[in-house]
Amino acid sequence: MNPFSYVTAADTPSAVALAAEGATYLAGGTNLVDLMRQGVETPERLVDISRLPLAGIEDLPSGGLRIGALARNTRVAADPRVRARYPVLAQAIVNGASPQIRNRATVGGNLLQRTRCPYFYDRHSACNKRRPGAGCDALGGFNRMHAVLGASESCLAVHPSDMCVALAALDAVVNIAGRDPVPLVDLHRLPGETPHVETVLRPGELVTSIDLPPARHGHGVYLKVRDRASYAFALVSVAALVHMEAGRADTVRVALGGVAPKPWRAYEAERLLIGTTLDDADIDRAARAALADARPREHNAFKIELARRLIRRALKGARP
């Protein structure tokens, strides 16, 4: 591990000032410390923000919920308000990692975690995300775990978060110190020709909390397919939310994980389901539309049919 300096932030403004000078934020450390051990990230200075007062979970006047960026994943999943009003979020968090990791990991860190692409982690492989302009070994390599939606010729990596898939379906908004809030679906960028620029955050900006709007949907469903029953990253995951009015769908949200460089909202599938009775034919049509633009690579074409099947299961489970 390369040498680095360490400082504890006294408050949010001082943390932001240090980060603007080139320091890297450290919260739970479940991703950053791993990357430092692998030599993928080599920050010269860490600013520990874990003691900042950003771990609260509080009701909003609108009826929504604000979750602090430093709230531990275990606490969020166990919060009675989350379990009662946003159970799809609790399901996603519990499916995302072991209890030990959830006890340490923070909401903000989960939002901003780096991809688990093996070529990104292997310093001897070409990776545009790790070293811009180096190329992408996943293009001609073993790309079974990689993206079928939203990728580019510069990067095929997928976003690893389960929690973010649920947040995308819930229309969550990300609060950032010193600037206007950003919808969760707009926080992460598609790779294009600059896969190393992963979010819309500017250098030094600090996520402070996430706002969930008032719950106006059914119980919601989060489903995840992975290679083993113990904790593993998603081959495909789906968060589905449905609200019916007079027997017809008036709110539908479908978000996918494991298939794209960011949490992926299936907007066309949602549009096709509005006003329908959500019968099996409606759901089948929407599931096909959700993957209509998929571009599989040599080893991951199976994800397309897998995602369609999982969307069908999730929507059938979410309908009243």
Care to describe what's here?
This protein starts with a strand and ends with a helix. The chain is globular and about 60 Å long. It is α+β, with helices and mostly antiparallel strands. Among the domains are: 5-50, Uridine Diphospho-n-acetylenolpyruvylglucosamine Reductase, domain 2; 221-318, Enolase-like, domain 1 (2-Layer Sandwich), CATH 3.30.390.50. The model has no long low-confidence stretch (mean pLDDT 96). It has helices at residues 12-20, 32-38, 73-78, 80-85, 87-96, 99-104, 107-111, 118-121, 163-169, 184-187, 267-273, 280-290, 302-318, and strands at 5-8, 24-26, 45-48, 57-59, 65-68, 173-176, 179-183, 207-212, 221-225, 236-245, 248-257, 264-265. The protein has a five-stranded antiparallel beta sheet with strand order 4-5-8-6-7. Strands 9-10-11-12 form a four-stranded antiparallel beta sheet, with helices on both faces. It has a three-stranded parallel beta sheet with strand order 1-3-2, with helices on one face.
Q: Assembly state here?
A: single chain
Number of helices: 13
CATH superfamily of one domain: CO dehydrogenase flavoprotein, C-terminal domain
Instruction: Indicate the CATH architecture of one domain.
Output: 2-Layer Sandwich
Classified by CATH, the class of one domain is Alpha Beta
**Which structural class should the secondary elements be placed in?**
alpha+beta
Largest sheet: 5 strands, antiparallel
CATH topology of one domain: Enolase-like, domain 1
Strand content: 15-25%
For the biggest β-sheet, the strand order reads 4-5-8-6-7
Protein name: FAD binding domain-containing protein
InterPro entries: CO_DH_flav_C, CO_DH_flav_C_dom_sf, Diverse_Substr_Oxidored, FAD-bd_PCMH, FAD-bd_PCMH-like_sf, FAD-bd_PCMH_sub1, FAD-bd_PCMH_sub2, Mopterin_DH_FAD-bd
Keywords: Oxidoreductase
